[in-house]
Task: structure prediction
Amino acid sequence: MEYLEGRDKFIRTWGELGINWGINKTMGQIHGLLLIETEALNSDQIMDQLKISRGNVNMNLHSLVEWGLLHKIDIKGQRKDYYVAEKDIWKAFKHIIRKRKEKELHPMIDLLDEVSKIEGSDDKSVEFLRMMEELNVFSKQADKALENLVNSKKNFLINSYLRMIK
Result:
């Protein structure tokens, strides 16, 4: 496989996988492109390489910066904004966890706290409250575990995995 073929396949697949991580395909493709680039790119260069519209590029660049997966940089003598990907995969992983917790887990915990305040002693109410409590405990434990992971050192996962397989 030639470099360009491998590069294009990686970018395309990274975009498709991004859907499973809570981002859209184009956002994933832009991240994949910048992840493997050796130099910063501006929005025109990204548009040309990925064949996507200016609005789509700009919207997704903004989101990727917000997620902490890209950094906007200034290049002396250039008026355009340039972007580079966070190359430390551990940092990127932690940014993704934080964002997913914020967008998915925390709203779930808030919902469970709210609906757990219903009143009633009939069978349906009792079962509803039991299930809400179980989900709430699980969600809060997951939140705590993810927070511990985010706050752990870079080699935590590798070392933990190696201990498990010994």
In short: The chain has a mean pLDDT of 90.
